Task: structure prediction
Amino acid sequence: MDKDTDKKLKSRNIKPTAMRELVLKVLTEQKTAISLPELEDKFVYADKSTLYRTLKTFEDKKLIHSIDDGSGAIRYAVCQDTCECNPDDLHVHFYCTSCKQTFCLNEISVPEINLPSGFSLKSVNMVVKGICINCR
Amino acid sequence: MDKDTDKKLKSRNIKPTAMRELVLKVLTEQKTAISLPELEDKFVYADKSTLYRTLKTFEDKKLIHSIDDGSGAIRYAVCQDTCECNPDDLHVHFYCTSCKQTFCLNEISVPEINLPSGFSLKSVNMVVKGICINCR
DNA sequence: AAAACTTTGCAACTCGGTTGCACCTGTTTT
DNA sequence: AAAACAGGTGCAACCGAGTTGCAAAGTTTT
Result:
């Protein structure tokens, strides 16, 4: 059992099962955002639905956030420690069309938008597509 | 046959078949972006794959643009006349979580982003989620 | 009018996501 | 300690969006 992952789970009110610890560990070691199918590949013996529900639980409890990068599969990445997934916490994501990896640009927060009057904002999904530094 | 739709198709180098004229007409009359499944509902007698390929053709020829609003289905909307779908042509989209409609905010272009060095930009998908003016 | 090419319709399939249900495991209650 | 309970996991099946191969229908070219 990893003390740190364990703590992290508890800090977000998630019961730390063996499965969850393993998933969180993979997510933490992962530098780029990962999709459910990709996660499945890393866990040959775990069931798809278990992994699915694990991700959903993590997302509900704001341990991870999801990114729809337009690749057809939703990807997930661990949130910053202080993140509450409010509009202020949102950052820009980068999708590399060459290596198909999705990066969290944590330093770049999504610009403010002045919506037409009558429209209210809840959240923003901003994905920049291009070529990443490794593929150039 | 509608002269205007016909002209519009030709101007983008698309052979104006009956099917395509009808689809373009629906897309033009539509105030919000529409998905393939939604389009299917409007064409009871047309085949899914035909509609699918029609949308793809339109998109290739830059008559329409696609929006991934995170709803699970890609939506399409007619481009502005001068649009070439370059990064400069890109505008923000608004997805209403109540009525599930997606609006093109044509007046609001996507803000510029300073990517980390080594990353190059090709396009941007920016979707703001919230409540639209009709649902408030 | 025949040949060549394009568009359309049908059917089947892929793949990501999702759910119902049974089983199992660990915890609480009696 | 046994029984009851709650929650987590695995299996199987399903859904819905998107996609493709192929044959039929329609157009264009020669």
Remarks:
- The first strand of chain B starts at residue 34 and ends at 35.
- Strands of chain B lie at 34-35, 64-67, 75-78, 91-96, 102-109, 120-131.
- The mean pLDDT of chain B is 94.
- Chain B is about 30% helix and 25% strand.
